[in-house]
Amino acid sequence: MIKFFRRIRQRLLSENKFSKYLIYAFGEIILVVIGILIALQINNWNENRRQQKQLMAVYERTLADINSDIEELTAIVEHHDSIEYIFKRVINDSITPDLFDVGLSRLVVANPVATTLNTTGVNQLKAMNTNDSLSIKIIEAYDQMKLIIIDNLEIAINQEIEDLMTLFRDKYDWYPEYMSKTIMQNNSSAALQDYFLNSKEYRYHVINNYNSRYANYVTVLKMSIETLNEITEELKLVLDKS
Prior knowledge:
Low-confidence stretches: none
Helix content: over 70%
Radius of gyration: 34 Å
Number of helices: 7
Distance between the termini: 41 Å
Largest sheet: none
Mean pLDDT: 87
Shape: rod-shaped
């Protein structure tokens, strides 16, 4: 093909048909430009297909991560639901010795919170730097969960636990007994039982911890679960179409 065009060009020049040669040269340039544009379009199309395939693979991983996180967050909510009645008994000042057997003495300190979000898929989405609306929604959801749940609410709750344990250690003689065994209604000293049954100080700490957990932490967890469930449905639709 190149030889063919070269022969035409040489013939036009030899026949001194300069105007026709210019037209021919211009046409040749146009053909070259068109060829380049077609090649670029094909390259862009192939690149878009590659990126889309990569995005779907990351979406599949992200969907698995989200499902795992929903299970973890749901388990945390269910655990708090299962012990809420003990909190309410203390708050309503209706404590009885039988509550020792279901964890009264460690109601606050035995439940530190530590959510571990699965962020492999989210981090891959961030690395891809995609402007896809679903990717942005997922990234924003996880950034908010980390900021609110992990970096704020959980830190605050765990600080309350640490402060209360320090109070027990520094102020009360029954602390060694408290740390040495599981406290039940029939295996602990009168001084220890009197504190957890009658102390206004302990009731205050339970009320404060209840507000931190149920008014804030558990509420945000439930909202996060709802958001993640919505995202899973959107991911499933996108993956099914692909």
